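Q: Could you fold this chain for me?
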Amino acid sequence: MSTQPNDVTEPEPQPARRDIEDKLPRGIWVRLLVYIFAGHLVAGFIYLLFTLGASRG
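A: Sure. Below is the predicted structure, expressed as structure tokens.
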């Protein structure tokens, strides 16, 4: 028998797996951007309605 230490080491955890878990899925980012865009569009339309209503009154 050999008294030398075993050169086999355990593999380290892959950092790519951790990155995937830390990031939000792409579908959520798309949905978030659509909701932000739509929200600003609705807010702009309401602002336009108030602006036009104030100028006619």
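A (continued): The radius of gyration is 29 Å.
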